[in-house]
Amino acid sequence: MDQGASGEESLAAVDIAPRLRHSALLAVAPSTLVPVSISNGSVATLEAPLIPERRDKLQPTSVTGNKRILLAAPRGYCAGVDRAVIAVEKALERYGAPVYVRKQIVHNIHVVRELESQGVIFVDEVAEVPEGSNIVFSAHGVSPMVVQQAEDRSLNAIDATCPLVTKVHREAVRFSGQDYHILLIGHEGHEEVEGTMGHAPENTSLVNDPDEADRIEVPVTENLIWLSQTTLSVDETMETVRRLRARFPHLQDPPSDDICYATQNRQVAIKKISPECDLVIVVGSPNSSNSVRLVEVALEYGAKASYRVDYASEIKQEWLEGVETIGVTSGASVPEILVDQTLADLADAGFTDVEEIRTAEEDLQFSLPKELRKDAAGNVDRTSLGGRNRS
Ligand code: SF4
User: Fold this and answer.
1) Is residue 336 part of a domain?
2) Pair 17, 101 in one domain
3) Residues 46/119, Cβ–Cβ less than 8 Å
4) Which atom of ligand 1 is nearest to the CA of 364?
5) In degrees to the nearest 10, what's the CA dihedral of 23, 24, 25, 27?
6) Is 336 in the same domain as 206?
7) Which residue minimizes the CA distance to atom 8 of ligand 1?
8) 3-state class of 106 per DSSP?
9) Is residue 390 domain-resident?
10) 2 lies in a domain?
11) Domain presence at residue 299
């Protein structure tokens, strides 16, 4: 699969133990007091967030057959999320708290709370950030206008945009410069879509779904190309393209996949297990596009029911009635500790037989944002490759 990330964001194939990737987030036990250095030199302690515990344990159901869990793999953290979270942690380490982050660094509430407990302040817009402060742009990317706003406020900006989103930005700039009109397939209001559209605002039209493909009006019918958000359903996107092409036969394809490797791999894994599942549980936040898509894909591929939860404590006893096989997966911004908690809670209900079904290996790592590749003294930081097992 050609992801086409290029430029200074180097890709490296490194053998990662994927389950180690969340180690830093795991390091803080619930309700631990975490020392946080403040930029004026003092140290404060903040309470780390709790993973909510359920009031009543899940109970074994009356099902007599073999209760089992099919655990999808790959699941959880992708290379872009891992890099973005490490970037914020490194910024805290280097500059001290507070570090500001525009929007949620990644779409997962636990990750956000965890970073807040370490001294990160999340804001919606750069206008909320005091002049001269440190700000991190989220993995979803920003438009050039936001970069300019940060410069106007003399902010020290660290760009944690996923390199695979940056790749789409570059495509938008390139094709717009070549007088193409871009049909961007994506969801209105999503931060990634706002960032990508902001790179070619005059020459881009947004297509939300296949139905919109049937009615969208465009200023030209020949020089047309489609691009997409990175976290969409592969099947639905192809249907949108099919319907666009039925109306605009000259529509050109992007030079490489825009739906990223992590989104595709998690969908392939859930497609594989869903036909065998009475229930599929997707761990992920409601604003996580790829997590929401996993629920849709699970239902489409044969799961009898599917629900998304932020935390295991949201699993309802009634979901388990009559269920023999449960599929479990997680979105690309979900630390594995939340999956571990899900498996532990389901074990209370008798689901102790867990089989991992792996459909792909992932070994991609991105180097950290260039602003963090050198240490405070200007020396090259040897840990600047974005995976947690780098030493
Ligand atoms: Fe990058 Fe894909 Fe992860 Fe988004 S889901 S951060 S595009 S690797």
Assistant:
1) yes
2) yes
3) yes
4) 8
5) 80
6) no
7) 80
8) coil
9) no
10) no
11) yes
* Residue that is written with structure tokens 């790749």 in the block: 167
For residue 80 and ligand 1, the question of a CB distance below 6 A is answered with yes
Nearest Cα to 364, choosing from 54, 2, 16? Answer: 16
The verdict on the CB of residue 139 being under 6 Å from ligand 1 is: yes
Pocket test for ligand 1, best of 88, 103, 167, 260 (most atoms within 8 A of CB): 260
Q: What are the distances in angstroms from CA 92 to CA 120, 134, 258?
A: 8, 9, 31
Full pLDDT tens readout for the chain, 391 residues: 344 333 333 333 332 233 333 333 433 334 344 444 443 334 444 555 568 877 689 999 989 889 999 999 999 999 999 999 999 999 999 999 999 999 999 999 999 999 999 999 999 999 999 999 999 999 999 999 999 999 999 999 999 999 999 999 999 999 999 999 999 999 999 999 999 999 999 999 999 999 999 999 999 989 999 999 999 999 999 999 999 999 999 999 999 999 999 999 999 999 999 999 999 999 999 999 999 999 999 999 999 999 999 999 999 999 999 999 999 999 999 999 999 999 999 999 999 999 999 999 999 999 999 989 877 677 776 666 665 544 3
Residue 51: left if φ>0, alpha if ψ -120 to 50, beta else—which one? beta
Asked whether residue 21 falls in the same domain as residue 158, the answer is: yes
Domain shared by 139 and 34, yes or no: yes
44 and 108 in one domain? yes
What is the DSSP secondary structure assignment for residue 125, as one 8-state letter?
S
Catalytic residues: 192
Protein residue whose Cα sits closest to atom 1 of ligand 1 = 80
- Domain of residue 158 covers 11-48+79-162+364-372
Q: How many domains does the chain have?
A: 3
Residue of 231, 285, 368 to test ligand 1 pocket, by largest number of atoms within 8 Å of CB: 231
